[in-house]
Design goal:
The chain has helices at 43-51, 73-89, 110-122, 129-136, 184-197, 226-246, 265-277, 279-286, 292-299, 327-339, 365-372, and strands at residues 4-8, 20-35, 55-65, 96-103, 125-126, 144-150, 153-160, 173-180, 202-203, 213-222, 254-262, 312-315, 318-321, 342-348, 354-361. The chain is of the alpha+beta class. 35% of the residues lie in helices and 29% in strands. The chain is built from eleven helices and 15 strands. The radius of gyration is 22 Å and the shape is globular. The strands form two sheets. Strands 1, 2, 3, 4, 5, 6, 7, 8 and 10 form a nine-stranded mixed beta sheet that branches. Strands 9-15-11-14-12-13 form a six-stranded mixed beta sheet, sandwiched between helices.
């Protein structure tokens, strides 16, 4: 893959676990980065947004501390992190981007962080996607990574995220690479399109993060048809996004909501989001309760009108409502919910040809426990 990584320990995580990652690219690469739309951004996000000009050579990522809400000192710390990577690897400082994730409001122990960067840069090895994801994780239960190869075309990436997950984007970090040669303009357009269908269509707790960042990087070593590149990158991105939902704090099931036959795409998307993010729907899924009433209430909660007499609702393959309830189908849906780890809800609006799919996780007791004790 020609991408290298180094790992360090800054003492940001308990138990002396590695908490700092440096990723080094073989040369200056075209890239596109999307950041959280939260107005209260991490200092690391502010720094990276400021310096990024379309190319990147290295990434430095710390976990265990968000570098957020710590005043202007946070901006200085992000700059010092980039400068240290630049000095250690003899590369341009402006092509080093900085990312942070973890607890908000605690200043970085910058001396320890800079020492960890030196440690990481001394021993570089080929990028290990699984280990990279593990190093940048916080409350994650498992690492998130994927690799797709189609002929000579490669697409691969790693991510972290389990809580504070909601567009735009979701507390997640994701970095996806391809060996395909892409111009900056094409890369940016492709990135935004893929992001809308993947990381901007997931939710765990409807809480938007201060630190979200999603990078798409072209290593530029192989020419390939654009549609093939799109498919490979979307496959990797969706895999990472679904892994984040699967790992939702306290989650036991993934919820897949597909709205079809809408008059316009925006309507399908907002209705899918309304169902997927409804706490009543999420708790019903946790309880394995085929409560279709909660689903139709969510469907009707957006600004878009729906015809309740044409509407069809499926839980799995079971048609539970089409203007009237079907009790036998509801019984079969309950069995489906008891046996399945991914619960699919299909809403057929019966009015057009547009559709959207949105992913979320169920909401159970452990989510409250994890977040009630997060900083204590």
């Amino acid at each position: 893959m020609d991408v290298l990584m180094g790992v360090g320990k800054a003492g940001l995580k308990s138990g002396g676990k590695p908490d700092l990652l440096v990723v080094v690219l073989p040369q200056s690469c075209n890239a596109s980065f999307l950041f959280t739309q939260n107005h209260f951004k991490s200092a690391s996000v502010l720094y990276s947004e400021k310096v990024f000009k379309g190319t990147v050579r290295a990434l430095v990522i710390n976990s265990g501390n968000a570098n957020c809400a710590v005043g202007r000192e946070g901006l200085l710390h992000a700059e010092l992190m980039a400068k240290k990577v630049s000095e250690c690897l003899d590369i341009e400082e402006e092509e080093v981007l900085v990312f942070s994730t973890g607890v908000i409001g605690k200043p970085l122990p910058i001396g320890d962080v800079l020492s960890a960067i030196e440690e990481a840069c001394k021993v570089l090895e080929p990028l290990d996607l699984k280990r990279a994801s593990d190093v940048i994780s916080t409350t994650d239960r498992f690492p998130k990574y994927d690799f797709v190869k189609k002929g000579k075309l490669e697409a691969f990436g790693f991510a972290k995220g389990a809580g504070m997950i909601h567009p735009h984007m979701a507390t997640m970090l994701a970095f996806v690479f391809t060996n395909a040669e892409l111009s900056r303009e094409v890369l940016e357009k492709l990135h935004r399109e893929i992001n809308e269908r993947t990381f901007n269509s997931i939710s765990v707790d409807a809480c938007m993060s201060t630190n979200d960042s999603f990078g798409l990087i072209s290593l530029g070593t192989h020419k390939e048809e654009l549609e093939s590149v799109r498919e490979a990158l979307e496959e990797v991105s969706l895999s990472l996004a679904k892994s984040i939902v699967q790992d939702g704090e306290g989650a036991t099931r993934v919820i897949k909501v597909h709205v079809k036959n809408a008059s316009i795409s925006l309507k399908a998307r907002l209705i899918a989001q309304a169902v997927a993010t409804s706490n009543l729907v999420k708790t019903a899924v946790f309880g394995k309760d085929p409560n279709w009433g909660r689903i139709v209430a969510a469907v009707g909660s957006t600004a878009f009108p729906v015809d309740q007499f044409k509407l069809k609702v499926y839980i799995g393959n079971h048609l539970v409502y089409d203007g009237k309830v079907h009790p036998k189908a509801v019984e079969l849906a309950k069995r489906y919910m008891e046996e399945s780890q991914e619960i699919e809800i299909v809403v057929d609006l019966m009015e057009g040809k547009e559709g959207w799919t949105y992913y979320s996780s169920d909401l159970g007791y452990d989510y409250i426990r994890i977040n009630a004790e997060y900083t204590t």
